[in-house]
Amino acid sequence: MDFSTLITTILHGLTLGMVLMLVAGGLTIIFGMLEVLNFAHGSLYMLGAYFGYTVVAFTGNFWLGLLAAPIAVGVVAFVIEFFSLRPLYGRPPLHHLLLTFGISLIVQNAIKFIWGNDIYSIEMPGFLAGATNLFGVYYPTYRLFVLVFSIVLAIAIWLLISKTRWGVVVRAGTEDIETLEAHGIDTRKVFTVVFVVCAAFAAVGGAVVAPMRTVYPQMGVDIIIDAFIVVIVGGLGSIRGAVIGALIIGQAVQLGAVFLTGFADAAIYIVMAAILLFRPSGLVPETE
Q1: How high is the mean pLDDT in each 10-residue block of the chain (288 residues)?
Q2: Angle at 272 between CA 159 and CA 266, to 5 degrees
Q3: What contacts 8, CB < 8 A, 6 or more positions away?
Q4: Which residues, 6+ apart, have CB-to-CB distance to 283 below 8 Å?
Q5: Verdict on whether the full-model pTM lies above 0.85
Q6: Closest CA to 173 of 197, 208, 149
Q7: Distance separating alpha carbons of residues 281 and 90, to the nearest angstrom
Q8: 134: which strand partners?
Q9: Burial letters for 262-275: b for 16+ Cβ neighbours within 10 Å, e otherwise?
Q10: Cα–Cα distance between 192 and 10 in angstroms, integer?
């Protein structure tokens, strides 16, 4: 492998890792605080891509689609949390898993009913087409935009979690929800906000990825499997673990496709098994 191909592969891995972080970060926060294994999270990511596609198709404005997707998905997430998840808080995790699995099927069938089984593409802005010269390596400009955009969004999430009162509540909630209630905080409202915000971030991920991966009815299933692996590798409920796990799995997918030809799909499972062999609770367990 030449130097240019290696750098391109690593950048592909970084880009995929940051997109995975947008999905897996929300997944692990929801689990850590609401104790819900949200199988529908991938469907919300997919719904963001479809909403983004529709807005761009009608307006011709990519940025408007990128803005509308998280807002529309946020409304859907509010309805899901308020009418289906809220009555089941405190129940065994299996109840939540089955419920969210059912919701994912409903969303997937609704998408097929509205948009059909066709594959759609979102036209990227003209100035993001083509390739950019990075120290002698030409890399697709749009993928570079997705990488930078995801990093900026990750920093925004970190600032939100670490520097705001809302972030303190979220972090405390992932550790000890009873303490929050003892301080008079309405945890039901906090749960709703957490679920909606995490769904919105997943929707942004779906919308921003759409121009380079197309929009199709199985994209939610594809992302949720990788996102669950990220959460398991990083440590259930751990935000730092989700970031580290996403970067590792992103590289495993891309480097596996190059070095493990014929076994590329197995690469992330090999990495997961190797990590869990030495760190059964994940790289950064919640208690750390």
Answers
A1: 82 90 87 84 94 93 94 95 86 86 93 92 87 85 91 84 77 69 78 90 92 88 89 84 89 84 79 89 72
A2: 120
A3: 137, 139
A4: 233, 234, 235, 241, 244, 245, 248, 275
A5: yes
A6: 197
A7: 23
A8: 137
A9: eebeebbeebbeeb
A10: 37
